[in-house]
Specification:
Rossmann fold, alpha/beta, 14% strand, 8 helices, globular, 229 residues, 2 domains
Length: 229
């Protein structure tokens, strides 16, 4: 079956290209962007559900915030009577497990949350941004930080309405930077059916470009489809 994947907090599916290219087999893979006007996880999930309309028993996945949105989309689909083949969460954490973030979060906060790159101050943050090949004028920085800040707040505020019934696989990155064992345990309670953890020796911020992630994702999809056989 085809796989639909939601990206992390950037909401841009382009970051998923390397992962999609390296998934074993010839499975069709489609990346979804977040709806730009969506201001809550529920709205992001509803837009994702609309994109799945007419798809028979879809396979859905998401990295980081994308996994939270994917879980909400699967929950909504199942509540509406649509079958879902399975869900793969890629090192996602629930809002209750997010580190705190100030309402006036800065570029340095953005760099740490998005790229895992620490900066001592705004000047160093701008230098890192230049090294990443990105624009550093004030308007460009605000264009980066404002939507991230809003989505981060939506993520922190979201609480799932209940479990999903389809098989759920969880790709957990180690040694760190992502989902702790306690965070994974909370997901386990939100899976009404089969649940399995697939460990990754990878950093949360670099796992999309690691071939091992694509291999683990392929194994998770096989496990899901074997459950349905």
């Amino acid at each position: 079956a085809a796989l639909r994947i939601l990206s992390g907090i950037s909401g841009e599916s382009g970051v998923l290209q390397t992962l999609a290219d390296n998934i074993p087999g010839d499975r069709p893979v489609m990346g979804f962007d977040f709806e730009p006007t969506a201001s809550t996880v529920e709205q992001m999930a509803e837009a994702s559900r609309a994109a799945l309309s007419g798809t028979e028993a879809p396979l859905l996945s998401g990295w980081s915030l994308g996994g939270v949105v994917a879980h909400a989309a699967v929950r909504g689909s199942e509540q509406a009577g649509q079958a879902v083949a399975g869900l793969v969460l890629i090192d996602s954490v629930l809002g209750a497990d997010l580190p705190g973030l100030a309402a006036d979060a800065t570029l340095a906060d953005w760099l740490m949350d998005m790229h895992g790159k620490p900066a001592r101050d705004e000047a160093e943050a701008r230098a890192i941004l230049r090294d990443l090949g990105m624009r550093t004028e004030a308007a460009a920085i605000e264009d980066l930080v404002a939507p991230w800040r809003a989505r981060r707040a939506a993520h922190a505020a979201y609480r799932p309405s209940g479990p999903v019934q389809c098989p759920v696989a969880f790709l957990q990155a180690r040694p760190g930077g992502g989902a702790s064992d306690a965070a994974v345990a909370r997901w386990r309670h939100l899976a009404g059916g089969r649940f399995r953890v697939f460990p990754l020796v990878a950093d949360h911020f670099a796992l999309l470009d690691d071939p091992a992630t694509a291999t683990a994702l392929g194994e998770a999809l096989v496990w899901i489809e074997e459950a349905d056989a």
